């Protein structure tokens, strides 16, 4: 199932490629700003949630942007019957996030 396109704030991007304990890894991950639940008495503000957008080669498409950026994100949600998997179906950078003036 594809989610509708969402406008999000991507705070950063990271790639990784190598081997750990004999197992290869290869990814590019974005970090998306998400707010805490408003009715949660133990948290306020925002956190970042990581999403894998593909192999480390995907990093090259997005590395020259100045983060944070506004982006259009479409997720694909699937299940194996035991667990749910969320993957990025598409990511389109829209614009830089305006910097706030110092108080």
Task: Offer a few descriptive terms.
single chain; 103 residues; mainly beta; OB fold (Dihydrolipoamide Acetyltransferase, E2P); 5-stranded antiparallel sheet; 5 strands; globular
Describe this structure in words.
This protein has 1 helix and 5 strands. The protein is mainly beta and 103 residues long. It has one domain (6-96): Beta Barrel (OB fold (Dihydrolipoamide Acetyltransferase, E2P)), CATH 2.40.50. It has a 5-stranded antiparallel sheet with strand order 3-2-1-4-5, with no helix packed on it. β1 and β2 (23-35) form a beta hairpin. The model has no long low-confidence stretch (mean pLDDT 91).
Layout of helices and strands:
Blueprint: E1 6-20, E2 23-35, E3 46-54, H1 59-62, E4 69-79, E5 84-96
Antiparallel strand pairs: 1-2, 1-4, 2-3, 4-5
Give the termini separation.
Answer: 44 Å
What is the tally of helical segments? Answer: 1
- Overall pLDDT level: 91
Structural class by sheet pairing and helices = mainly beta
CATH architecture title: Beta Barrel
Number of domains: 1
Biggest sheet character:
5 strands, antiparallel
| Helical percentage | under 10%
In N-to-C order, the SSE pattern is EEEHEE
Radius of gyration from CA coordinates: 16 Å
Strand runs, count: 5
Q: Largest beta sheet: what is the strand line-up?
A: 3-2-1-4-5
* CATH domain topology: OB fold (Dihydrolipoamide Acetyltransferase, E2P)
């Amino acid at each position: 199932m594809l989610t509708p396109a969402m406008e999000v704030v991507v705070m950063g991007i990271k790639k990784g490629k190598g081997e750990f304990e004999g197992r290869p890894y290869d990814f590019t991950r974005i970090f998306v700003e998400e707010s805490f639940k408003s009715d949660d008495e133990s948290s306020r503000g925002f956190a970042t949630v990581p999403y894998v957008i593909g192999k480390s080669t995907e990093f090259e498409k997005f590395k020259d942007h100045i983060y944070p950026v506004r982006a259009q994100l479409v997720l694909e949600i699937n299940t194996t019957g035991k667990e749910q998997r969320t993957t990025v179906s598409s990511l389109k950078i829209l614009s830089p996030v305006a910097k706030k003036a110092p108080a």
